[in-house]
Amino acid sequence: MKDCTEYQIYIGSLDSQLNAKLVSEDEFQEMIVHFFKRKEIAFSMYRAKGGFLQKNGNFVSENSVCINIIGAYDLDIVSLAKSLSMFMNQECSLVVKNIVKTEYC
After folding, report:
1. Which residue has the higher pLDDT, 54 or 68?
2. Domains (range + CATH), the chain
3. What's residue 6's pLDDT?
4. What is the pTM of this model?
5. CA distance linking residue 29 with residue 51, whole number of Å
6. 53 - beta bridge partners?
7. Is the separation of the CB atoms in 29 and 44 below 8 Å?
8. Nearest Cα residue to 6 out of 78, 84, 71, 60
9. CA dist 46 → 10, 21, 53, 54, 57 (Å)
10. What is the mean pLDDT of residues 2-14?
């Protein structure tokens, strides 16, 4: 097995201005697939439920998506996450970086 960098991007499904879902969960995921397909970046994703404190002090619970990108050493992951946040009209997204052991079998 070899060491690789894994990035996780957590992004919510509520519109940042309206605090409401504007598309279904399936449409939301299809938009994310389109975003990464256009950029030709390999990824996987899964649904999650999360909560966060907004800048105005309100606590919001929402459906989220976690996107995993493994072994993409040449990516500026923070810029990518910011672009994704703008594309999905989000206030922000969360980026996590881990070193993982991988092997394709």
Report:
1. 68
2. 2-102 (3.30.70.120)
3. 92
4. 0.83
5. 19
6. 59
7. no
8. 71
9. 10, 18, 22, 23, 28
10. 90
DSSP, residue by residue, 20-32: SB-S-HHHHHHHH
Q: Which residues neighbour 7 within 8 Å (Cβ) at sequence distance 6 or greater?
A: 68, 69, 70, 72, 75, 77, 95, 96, 97
Q: Following DSSP, what letter does each residue of 2-57 receive, concatenated?
A: EEEEEEEEEEESB-TTT-SB-S-HHHHHHHHHHHHHHHT---EEEEEEEEEE-TTS
Would you state the structure tokens that stand for residue 11, as one six-digit string?
């992004």
Question: Which residue bears the tokens 């409401």?
Answer: 20
Q: Which is it for the CA torsion 86, 68, 19, 50, positive or negative?
A: negative
pLDDT of residue 32 exceeding 90, the answer is no
